[in-house]
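Annotated sample (chain length 196).
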Amino acid sequence: MALIRRDIFLFLLSATAYTNVVQLMTIPMRILLVLMFLGGFNCNGQEKLGKAEIVELENYQKEDGYFPHDCSMESDMLERAIELDKYGVELIIKSIANDGYTGHSIAFRLNSKMEVKEAEYDEWTDALDGSSTNYKIDEIELKLNSDPFKSNKLIGYYKVYMTGYYKAGDILEKEGVKDEQFQRTFKGKFNTTCDE
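Output written by the structure step:
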């Protein structure tokens, strides 16, 4: 959610959009917008989650336990499995997988020093039992084949270390299922060059 707010905020700061939007906004709307963005950034409490390393990456296609996000996953249900969005000195890398029954999404925000300043992970399933799981990203290891600020042709591998907070919900709670907190590691990889 914070990355989406950041996308909107950066769009609003662009020169043309800023002047057009500001002219249409009342003063209370401007104040509310600033408070909303400041509150969203301060609530994260996330400093640096990791730093991307530039390394030589080979054999992307091999089976290695890393979940792939690339053009081989694209279908009628999923138009793009990997997106790179550059905003000046920041880059957002978004990966998504969805098979119609389950899925997950991961987004990283990198600054020009290659530090991962913000990250989000979410997953879903078609089972509607009232339970939910939220994740807090603790640390990220990210390896890239080249500088993402100089090239859109990227291959990357990452490990996301996170804390999960499972809430059983009313239905499962009645059956004795308890809320719990747990540690999880997600290993993924992406390739923006597979169309070539």
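Annotation: Residues 10-19, 38-46 have pLDDT under 50 and may be disordered.
Annotation: Residues 1-45 form one domain.
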